[in-house]
Design a protein that fits this description.
By secondary structure, the protein is α/β, with parallel strands linked by helices. Helix content is 47%, strand content 12%. The chain has helices spanning 13-27, 82-89, 92-100, 117-128, 140-149, 151-154, 171-185, 195-199, 203-210, 214-225, 229-237, 242-262, 269-280, 292-303, and strands at residues 33-37, 43-50, 62-70, 106-111, 134-138, 309-311, 318-320. The longest helix is centred in the last third of the chain and has 21 residues, at 242-262. The radius of gyration is 24 Å and the shape is elongated.
Length: 323
C-alpha cells in the first residue's frame, strides 16, 4: 500500500503547530506546553520529565525538551534546501543559551519537509556541538507515520475530509483580478490585438505535453481568452503595477508546484483549469462583475509558461516551465 500523503503543506502555521503539539503529547506526555509566539517571532514548546515513548518506549529520554515547528506552504521541499539550513542556523544561539541555563537537554524540530540522511549527518553535528544531549529533526516522512498510527490526531487535520486534489489561497489572484479589471475597463479597445504574438509559441506541442484538449484550446483559450493576453501582459509589465505583478508571480509559483505534485489526480489539463476556476470563484463577492477575468488570467499563466510544462527546442527532454 502506498503511503498516504496528508498534504501538510496545505495547513497554515497555527494548524501545523497544533498538530505538532498533539503528536508531542503522545510521544512525551501531557506536560507538553503548547507553542507561543516569542519575541523573536519564533515558535516554541517545551516539556520536562521522562518521555512516554520518545525516541522509543523501551529507551525514553529524560530531561528538558525544547520543541520547534518549521512549516512551509509548499509541497516537495526538503531539509536539504538552503533556506532550511538558514532557519535552523538562526536557532543555534537560542539553543546554546537555553542549554547554558539548564533548560534544554533535548532539541526537537518538526518540519513538513523531506529529511535525508545527508542532511541528518550535517545538522546533527552542528546541533550537538551546541552542548545539548540529543537533537532530533522530525521530517514529513516521520510525521506521516505518526498520523498513520494515531487516527484521533489525523482526523483533526483541517483537510482530512477535503477530497480536493489540492488547496490554494486565491486571495492574491483575486487582488490581481480586481486591479486588472480596473486597468482594462479604462481602455477596452486595446485588448484585441495580441493573438499573433502568442501563436508564435509551439502551442500544439505544449498542449500535447500538458494534456489540453483541442476542443478546449480552440473554443475556450483561443476564442475567449487569447484576445486579452496582450492587455494582461501590459498590465503586469507596467511599473505602476509592480506590486500586483509580484502577487501574480507568487500565486503562479504556488499553483505550478501544486499542479506538478498533483498532476496525476487529474485527467486532461482542461480539468485543472476548471478546478482552479472553481477554487477562485468561491470569492464571489470580491469578484462580482470580474469573474470572466479568472479564466483569462489562468490561461495567460499557461501560455506564458508560468504553469504547465514545455519542451526545449534543442532536444526532446521535457522540462518544467521555470527551467
Amino acid at each position: 500500500m502506498l503511503p498516504r500523503d496528508y498534504r501538510l503543506h496545505e495547513l497554515n502555521e497555527d494548524e501545523f503547530e497544533k498538530l505538532v503539539v498533539r503528536i508531542c503529547v503522545r510521544w512525551l506526555g501531557e506536560g507538553v506546553t503548547p507553542f507561543a509566539r516569542g519575541r523573536d517571532g519564533g515558535r516554541d514548546g517545551k516539556f520536562h520529565g521522562t518521555a512516554n515513548a520518545f525516541p522509543s518506549a523501551a529507551s525514553p529520554l529524560s530531561g528538558h525538551f525544547v520543541l520547534q515547528a518549521k512549516h512551509i506552504s509548499a509541497p516537495n521541499r526538503s531539509c536539504s534546501d538552503p533556506d532550511f539550513a538558514g532557519l535552523l542556523g538562526k536557532e543555534h544561539g537560542k539553543i546554546k543559551r537555553l542549554n547554558g541555563d539548564g533548560i534544554c537537554d533535548h532539541y526537537l524540530v518538526f518540519a513538513n519537509r523531506k529529511y535525508t540522511g545527508g542532511a541528518d549527518e550535517k545538522f546533527m553535528k552542528d546541533l550537538l556541538g551546541l552542548g545539548i544531549n540529543s537533537a532530533h529533526i522530525i521530517g514529513v516522512e516521520r510525521l506521516h507515520i505518526a498520523l498513520d498510527d494515531y487516527a484521533n490526531i489525523r482526523e483533526t487535520l483541517p483537510n482530512w475530509l477535503d477530497s480536493s486534489p489540492f488547496r490554494f489561497n486565491p486571495d492574491e489572484l483575486v487582488e490581481v483580478i480586481g486591479a486588472l479589471h480596473a486597468y482594462t475597463k479604462d481602455d477596452p479597445a486595446s485588448a484585441f490585438d495580441s493573438a499573433l504574438d502568442f501563436e508564435k509559441l509551439k502551442m500544439p506541442l505544449k498542449n500535447k505535453l500538458n494534456g489540453v484538449s483541442d476542443e478546449y484550446y480552440k473554443q475556450v483559450i483561443v476564442a475567449q481568452s487569447m484576445p486579452h493576453f496582450d492587455r494582461v501582459a501590459q498590465f503586469l509589465q507596467n511599473p505602476r503595477n509592480e506590486e500586483f505583478a509580484a502577487l501574480y508571480h507568487d500565486a503562479a509559483d504556488e499553483l505550478k508546484q501544486k499542479i506538478i505534485a498533483k498532476r496525476a489526480q487529474f485527467g486532461a489539463f482542461d480539468d485543472i483549469f476548471v478546478f482552479m476556476y472553481e477554487q477562485i470563484q468561491e470569492k464571489r463577492e470580491a469578484l462580482r462583475g470580474k469573474r470572466r477575468l479568472i479564466s483569462i488570467l489562468l490561461h495567460y499563466m499557461y501560455f506564458n509558461c508560468d504553469i504547465g510544462i514545455k519542451q526545449l527546442e534543442e532536444n526532446e527532454d521535457v522540462v518544467h516551465a521555470d527551467a
